[in-house]
Amino acid sequence: MRVAIGATRHGSLPTARRRRSLITTCSTSSDSSKRCPSTVRIGRQWMEYQGANNWDGLLDPLDDTLRSEIVRYGEFVQAAYTCFDFDPSSPSYATCRFPRHSFLRRSGLPCTGYRVTRNLHATSGIRLPRWARAASTWLSRRSSWIGYVAVCQDEDEIARLGRRDIVVAFRGTATCLEWLENLRATLTHLPCPFPPSASQPEPMVQRGFWSLFTSPGSIRRCLRDEVRDEIARLLDAYGGKGQPLSLTVTGHSLGAALAVLTAYDITTTFQDAPMVTVVSFGGPRVGNASFCRRLEERGGKVLRIVNTQDIITKVPGFVIDDNNVKEEDSSEGVIPSWLLSKTGWVYADIGRELRVDGRRTANVVACHDLSVYLNLVNQLSAKCPFRSLATQAMAGQR
């Protein structure tokens, strides 16, 4: 199934007015959490909350401290949406609307204790026909601002977190070419230092996501190199100070896919990298089983927040289970794995999954919106006495 990632209207690009409306709605729904930064002290338990034990015992029921951390990282992603210029008629279309020094404050996060250190840009590798290059900016824009890197510098927040944290945050799909890259759903091979074997086939990832991650622009380096340069600089600045350091990569939709690719690249590029954790919201599948296994072997931890009603989390491709491949929404028929393996569409789900149950609706946008995800996570509480009963009741209705 071909589904555009990060859509706000099925089959069409959102208008600037519509997009600003969605952003305003999301910001309003979580204003209280943004005005009141978390005071929950994590301290020496920080590695557990970053996934050192794969979040065992923290997900069902959802630990309240982990819940607050998930929402906190989701707000970093929301800031990336808030700062992006969605208006194709604007001279600054597809750029960041705010300067780095006031970025978080103007996006509604004035008290995070973090400072933005670098803007990040993604470039599409799709080559448009000549007639399309002369079309509107919305159609022909190849490079766009897609996220940022921030580092925690407030001593009180560092003490609360138990370490200095570096955040890499990515927004979802916004430009026409990003939409087109989402549709390039066949798998492509990754550079691999080890020869493939029957037990260790080559790692492969979705072609369009890899294109956005590795394609250079006319005046900018590729997203992968921008991230590498900044992470190397920050590790040099903070890595040898005797203070624990963590890397948290977070994103929504397309940004969730780029977050996984970023974690993979960091863990394979930096031999002495600190703990790398991905917190993703509404992310599509990214790669095959070999890719997922390589990331896990390198120590990368991935926590996927998935709305059961969100179709984006069920594409692209198929997942092999016990030598069979089943279509996601089909309860009948089994397709032999050897047959679908020839299509280049055999993917694997990565990491641990935190599943939230949204309201059943035919509105694909409502199920996928980041604000819906954050509200659903906020509703999960280990202290709620009726949560287990409600979960059992919902399971009985299926």
Automatic annotation (TrEMBL):
Membrane-spanning ranges: none
Protein known as: Phospholipase A(1) DAD1, chloroplastic-like
Domain of life (superkingdom): Eukaryota
CDD domains: Lipase_3
UniProt organism field: Phoenix dactylifera
Keywords per UniProt: Chloroplast, Hydrolase, Lipid degradation, Lipid metabolism, Plastid, Transit peptide
GO MF annotation terms: phospholipase activity
GO cellular component: chloroplast
Subcellular location: Plastid, Chloroplast
InterPro entries hit by this protein: AB_hydrolase_fold (IPR029058), Fungal_lipase-type (IPR002921)
Protein family according to the UniProt entry: Belongs to the AB hydrolase superfamily. Lipase family.
The gene coding this protein: LOC103715822
Residue span(s) of domain Fungal lipase-type: 167-318
